[in-house]
């Protein structure tokens, strides 16, 4: 098969090629290099590219650095869902623990955010992903967010879920731009160094 690497701008080869590296912006990163990504409604494509990369590096500013996912990012986990299944998926996510009222959300420490189908801001109707799917934003209690790989598996097993905006155990490092202009690098071994 030879040396097949993704050429920038070529999405059709991503699934069958191996890239040397991929640098991505993320919504939030925790102390174990798990991340929330997908605010731009392309979870499936982002995940395919992340898995195709030999080395996956995250880049973010210091405000996206947190000990636990969901501490600073209040909107919840972005989840790409088949349009005809979104009502059933919303119901199952509620059963899984995603709050549907502000009262429940505040009670479980989800910052008042509720499970919702993401709606367009400059158009009528729901946000549609690059693949024609809907996006659901699902906040979860802190104790569930502290175990993101377990939560990812539970969500991914729901019929109708296409992809989940949790990226667990994939990154080799995270680079954070700091307010003072310096850069901090967090590695998989937990070490942090300032450049």
TrEMBL record:
Keywords for this entry?
Isomerase
What's the protein here called? Ribose-5-phosphate isomerase rki1
Q: Which gene encodes it?
A: RKI1
